[in-house]
Amino acid sequence: MKRNKYLLFLGLIFFLFSCSVDSNLNFLNSVSNKYNALETLSFNNYFANAIDRPIYSDNTFIYKEKIYKIANNKIKYVGKFTDTSYDNNVTSIEELKTYNIGDTIYVNETRCAYLITNVNKGADIQIAEELYATPLINNGVVSLRVFGKYDDYSIILNNLFKNINAYKISTLELDGNLICKNYIDFSCISDLTILAHNAKLIVDDSYADDNYHEFFFNIYGASNIMISKMSFNYQMTRSINGIKTMLGVHKSKGLEFVDCSFDISSSVQNNSEYTNMDLYTNWENVIINNCTFNNLCDSEAGGSLWIRDFHGLGSKDCKVLNSHFYKIAHDEMIAVFMGIISNVLIKNNEFLVPDDGVSSSVMNFTLGTGSNHKNISFIGNKVDACSTGGLIWAKGENVIIKDNNLNVHLSKKGTGSFRAIEGSINNIKEFSNNTINIDSLLDTYDFQVHILHNIDIVKNNKINVNMKVTDVLLGIDEVEDNEINLSMASEFVFYNIDTNVCNNIVNINNKINAIFRYYGKDLENSVSIKNNEINYNYEENINENSTFIMLNDLKMNNYMVNIINNKLYAKGCNKKSRFLFYAPADLNQSSIIKDNEVSGFNESNNYFKNFNIN
Fold first, then answer.
1. Closest C-alpha to 381, from 417, 333, 317
2. Per-residue b/e over 464-494, b at no fewer than 16 CB within 10 Å?
3. Tens digit of pLDDT for each residue in 87-130?
4. How far is CA 332 from CA 223, 385, 386, 584, in A?
5. Are 562 and 529 a contacting pair, CB within 8 Å?
6. Is 271:239 a contact under the CB 8 Å cutoff?
7. pTM for this structure?
8. Of 120, 138, 142, whose CA–CA distance to 129 is shortest?
9. 169 in helix, strand or coil?
10. E strand or H helix at 44
11. Which of 17, 250, 262, 395 is 20 to 30 A removed from 492 (C-alpha atoms)?
12. Are 267 and 237 in contact (CB under 8 A)?
């Protein structure tokens, strides 16, 4: 009977242990199942960041005192973790001074063993003259704490990064607040993960700025690097010589920044340029995922993220994903410019720019500045931003803007033309599936305001215009399946549309001069205005008038501007208003105008010159 009870007891222990392992495995594999190869450089990078634990060079890791292994992107249980025991065991690093060359000692304070040697690998702890404590690194994983405590952590970080190959480190762990009194040089390093566990690199008034360094954390010639949960903090209150940018990237590839934060405090002096991150030149395959960018210094120059190629050496493949941007400073949140750049994806981020500062953004985003900037996509983002000039300006080839929620505000500091979304000669290929709400913080203004300008295709958007505008759509090729709502008195809805205006719903709830305007251009093909529902819900007074379509002072070149099968409603047009005004510059032009349901527009005032209806 006793034997049966003993076996039952052992069985219970095994059952409970198995349940624990299974519970851990279930959790770990549920994490692994969320792996998205499109948002990270590798499974190991994703998994280490997700569970916030280092992965050793043999693909094992420790979780709740058990060892697991990664195999084919799945997790396998290996066994119970047992820490290595040492004969020599002390509490603090100070006690290492009593040992001799060749001794191995475990220090409880740093949770690391050390070998006493007379050779310094570059970042060892000096315990006496020509006597050093070298940390014994377990399968490539080490914590910065094993190298001692510093008043200035830029010293140990620079020493360690300079000599990192001597230590064979694959994962460096950080923790706590780390004051840095000098810049950090991260050069020629490969195959390294930094798990910061929300550690803060802090720059304050103690920073030594005798020598100018543009970048505080300077990444140069690096490859296959992940920086996880690192916080970069500018907290200085005095003017600092240099380090205008928190992190810069040069001649590097395979970089991943995940769950990091870049914070420029409002205490920072605004008499210089400060930017969170600068992909400066000759970079490749950079991922920025779930990071936070705060720039609150209100400086006259500087922004959040520069994606550029300063020396024109070629840069490609950058993803900015799932991140949060908050800026009170003059320049853009994200700017793609300079050199040769291809394949930039800005997706599922949140952007906020209030109108609080002395300075104000002219433009919130620049998506390319020339023909050498290709394949730039702005997708699925949430934007709430003020500016004096507009939200997005683009001159890249194949720029796509889709699936975004855009709240656009003309700043109260605005003094000139405002162009919410503008391409340079149709460099924006597609603007689709967006919701865009536009208003002004200025009570009055008399300058031009354009909402969408120079875009190939504007399709399936909801466009709410809550300010006085010159035109909603200017120089667009195709306008299809959109809902457009205007609440303020404006001049035009559609201006010089090149090909098709089809299947749109337009609600105009205030005075409009003309719904369609064609002026000062040469047609290169026929235009089809077809299957639209247009509601002019405003009652004009005795001194007001409007036109459904005004076409004059352009050459039709024997092409047509056809109006077919539209439903057109006007609540109360003045008797001076017109349905059609066609006066092309060339003779004997014609168009097809048929099958329209017209209500409220005054067709008796139609005006034709050099024109006949087919």
1. 333
2. bbebbbbbbbbbbbbbbebebbbeeebbbbb
3. 899 999 999 999 999 999 999 999 999 999 999 999 999 999 98
4. 28, 11, 11, 42
5. yes
6. yes
7. 0.94
8. 120
9. coil
10. helix 43-51
11. 395
12. yes
